[in-house]
Amino acid sequence: GAGVSQSPSNKVTEKGKDVELRCDPISGHTALYWYRQSLGQGLEFLIYFQGNSAPDKSGLPSDRFSAERTGGSVSTLTIQRTQQEDSAVYLCASSPSSGYNEQFFGPGTRLTVL
Amino acid sequence: SQELEQSPQSLIVQEGKNLTINCTSSKTLYGLYWYKQKYGEGLIFLMMLQKGGEEKSHEKITAKLDEKKQQSSLHITASQPSHAGIYLCGAYYTDSWGKLQFGAGTQVVVTP
Predict the structure, then answer these.
(1) Contact (Cβ atoms closer than 8 angstroms) between residue A33 and residue A98
(2) A91 close contact with B: CB closer than 8 A
(3) DSSP labels for B58-93?
(4) Which of B44, B99, B106 to mutate to test the interface with A (most CBs of A within 10 A)?
(5) In a mutagenesis test of the A interface, which of B43, B50, B51 is the best target, namely the one with the most A β-carbons within 10 Å?
(6) What is the pLDDT of residues A72-88, one digit of tens each?
């Protein structure tokens, strides 16, 4: 079956612009996660959604970052007024439910802020 | 994550040789995952360990969990070029429901 997909695969933007990153989880997976992978910081948790529950936003680094999940499926991570330090690979993962389950990762979106 | 220390940071191994990567947690683990990542790709699940003393193998890769030390090791026997990549350990803790916390990763290079 289809895995987690993300788009775009690469995004280059200018400092100060807004960007939207998209994630399509595996069909039927109720939990969806966003992570960021950058040099020197490793892979860090940003936010996760579980069904219709309020998302856990505890990992979002600033209020410029937001995410939504429509219809319990597709998710969009939005970064407003991008800064150079936002340059990273943004990974999305999904799992059949939240909790202590295997997370299936997408290929990521490489964001470069000039 | 400072709670999860992974070592070494990188290693170069000759094809056919064995290698070991360690992942040590500063607090009690609920579960430990091993993933592999190649450049430009997502994380590929390798194994999950949950119980102390648990050991799992898949092809030439073996992972163990030492509950007393809160440490996991990933061992590759007779390495091949296909084993090259970044290996990441990820941990679940009882106070971080649903959030995997990752080590910094180990870059493995396999030379002819």
Answers:
(1) no
(2) yes
(3) ETTEEEEEETTTTEEEEEESS--GGG-EEEEEEEE-
(4) B99
(5) B43
(6) 799 999 999 999 999 99
- Per CATH, the homologous superfamily of domain B4-111 is Immunoglobulins (2.60.40.10)
pLDDT reported for residue A1: 57
Both tokens assigned to B44? 């590929």
Which stretches of chain B score pLDDT less than 50?
Answer: none
Q: Which pair of tokens denotes residue B85?
A: 């990549």
The CA-based angle B49-B53-B59, given to 5 degrees, is 55
For each of the domains in chain A, give its residue range(s) and CATH number, in order of start.
Answer: 5-103 (2.60.40.10)
CB contact under 8 A, B33 and A99: no
